[in-house]
Amino acid sequence: MAELLHMIDNLSVNIIVSFLLLISITTLLNYLRKNNKKKLPPSPPALPVLGHLHLLKKPLHHTLIDISNRHGPITFLLFAARPAIIISSHILAEQCFTIHDLSFSNRVQLSSVMMPNLIGTANYSPYWRHVRQIASVELLSNQQLQASLETRAEEIKDMVHQLFQSHKMHENSERPNYFRRLDFRKTIFELTMNIMMMLIAGKRLYGDKIEDVEETQKFREAVTGWFELSGAANVEDFIPLLRILDLQGVMKKMKWVTEVMEETVQKIIKEHRQEGIGNRKTMIDRMLELGKKDYEKYSDLVIRNIAITLLLGGSETSANPIEWAMALLLNNPDALQKARTEIDAQVGNQRLIKESDSNHLPYLECIISETLRLYPVAPLLVPHESREEISIEGYEIPKGTMLLANIYQIQRDPEIWEEPMKFKPERFQDGRSNGKWMAPFGMGRRKCPGEALAMRQMGLVLGALIQCFDWERLGSELVDLSEGSGLTLPLATPLEVMYRPRHIMTDILLQV
Ligand code: HEM
């Protein structure tokens, strides 16, 4: 009986698969028929149904470099039936994000991302302009960032204090001045998650100061689940039959993740509404305050979508370049020493570094720029989609085409950058690289609205770590800088380091 059921089960899967395969082939043929008179950019040979999906190996930006090297600075690909262009020259990227910016201002709607109304996922529309304006003007403007600097400073103080304490606990007379091993990725990820949650909602997700342990644990699982699922290239996004069958359970997991995040944030908004705003200055409170005058503009749904966007868009993105910068500094101890000398001269050792110190720490800024040039957080930016047919370099790009700008490749262009593969923060000193094309935060209408916050945060975290502690590699070998794949561009091996508090900072570390 069981075997019979199994056979029927297999038979029905085969029928569904054949049926859906037929639909996919028909869609692809229709697409090719409709577009075969258009002059499309060069393209490698495509397979039926899959198009060029079979060529896409991880990390994707490296596969696309190979394709661009063979076919030119603008290439055309089909991800199953979804058209895409790959741009790998700064001249074309500049064109796409200036004269064609409005035409390319939609987002690719991926079905595995089940929140189409976040700032980063919504198509260009009055709704998107509305939520984007709230984020840029009311929450992430310089004035607002100035008002929230204490929150960031508190979290960073807390982190250096924890590092100091856990080092002290393991130090003893038999091993004075010893270096302690640290999971750097975990430490920085938890810090940036806590900073974003504190800025948005006044709650932490990690550490011993969390309030509702069980609920926080569930929310944490949902958020990290979202990063994992969004970071995996989900074939389900391109082949409808796989989406329906959901053999890997991706759609089911994403549904759970979405529900938990939406419910939790909704609950936080309700709590803030009931408790009144008081002295807190969180982003949710600010939106509730503004909503008192205009509820339509600040409905719970709008507040929820903005809060979720900023949490997902602002945490891993900021943690990732701090990890890369530390890895690069450990492999380039001269640059680490130069940054330390600058901090000691400008900030000293009688107080912890502040955000406003960044104006006097140009070398630290050069380190951050060089890190973002070599290892941009989003090597292909976040895919845009064309809202209409566009003509680029004589090619006709159909409406609904995904735009992948390979800024990783462009930012290493030997025509623009001397020794492009080398970590040389000095190339940014004294405005020496002014005018050279770089866009780690994107360009145009969909450019990252969190750039100013990210720059403040990265400078402060990296600066505090360099000011307070000595850093070493695990052994004599260089840190392995191989790239992994994910939502952001990660180091393939999570960074682990050795650290110890600097003697001259002991008084400060005891106070914070
Ligand atoms: C080093 C840190 C960061 C980097 C490198 C970065 C980079 C980017 C990039 C490349 C994009 C896509 C631009 C495009 O589509 O052309 C983007 C979009 C976005 N980022 Fe960031 N980001 C960072 C931090 C942040 C922070 C801290 C926030 C907010 C708290 C944030 C919020 C957003 C949002 C909301 C979008 C979507 C914009 C839209 O679609 O209209 N990001 N970011």
TrEMBL record:
The chain crosses the membrane at residues 12-32. Keywords: Heme, Iron, Membrane, Metal-binding, Monooxygenase, Oxidoreductase, Transmembrane, Transmembrane helix. GO terms for molecular function: heme binding; iron ion binding; monooxygenase activity; oxidoreductase activity, acting on paired donors, with incorporation or reduction of molecular oxygen. Its main location: membrane. Pfam families: p450. The keyword Protease does not apply. GO terms for cellular component: membrane. Heme binds at residue 448. It is a single-pass membrane protein. PROSITE patterns: CYTOCHROME_P450. This is Cytochrome P450.
